[in-house]
Amino acid sequence: MVATRTRARKSVRLNGAANRRPEQFVASAEDPWINPGKDGKNLTVSEFPTYTLGRLTGIVRRSFMPAYVDPFGLSIPEWRVMAAIVSRSSLSFNEICSTITMDRAQVSRTLAALVAKGLAAQLTAARAEHRSRGQGMTQTKVILTAKGTRIYRRILPTAQKHQMILLSVLDNHERSVVRRALRKMLAAAQKHEAQRSATATARTKSRKVSPKRTRSGSQRISAQGNSGRTQGNGRRYANTRERIDL
Fold first, then answer.
1. Across all residues in the chain, what is the average pLDDT?
2. pLDDT class for 164, splitting at 50, 70, 90?
3. Counting C-beta atoms within 10 Å of the first and last residue's C-beta, which end of the chain has fewer, N or C?
4. Residues 120, 145: contact at Cβ < 8 Å?
């Protein structure tokens, strides 16, 4: 009977943070996130959402992740790539880059390291989906080997335990609110990134020069004159359309 009561009290203590009633939220005009001002003019750098998220990410990278990847001789990028592959069973190179938002060069180096350690392998299979222009009939996918899967499963419990360091300070209501808020912020960031990429692509296309585009006055160059300069100086002065296509 005594043992049962002791276990019950211990369970209450462990789950208290998650189960306690959420405190009533009172918005304060002094909170910079409540009143950021037009275009965020009231925010100092230390109050930027990106600043707070960056600090949290930095602490996690320095003190959380090494605790569960270092004992297995893995780097943080290697762990992130392994986790991404496991989430979908297999991923292409481009899918890995978009899933974990890692630089393509670093993804390439990380994959090479995982393959060299025998933790990942590349499989070439027929492309099932509709092919876009320039795509081949086959596609290379990356999978974890049996060794890689075993190591991932050994690391996962420790990684999950470390996540509770953050979640344990929030009650259930706060967890739900924070999760939804972070997802909204992530979606907004992804939308901005897509718009920025589209704008950069449009600017690049606008810089392409048409063969009929001319300059004023004595600098006007006709397609015929351009062709003549090509004959005299080799491919350096090839006509404009040829330069763009190449």
1. 78
2. very high
3. N
4. yes
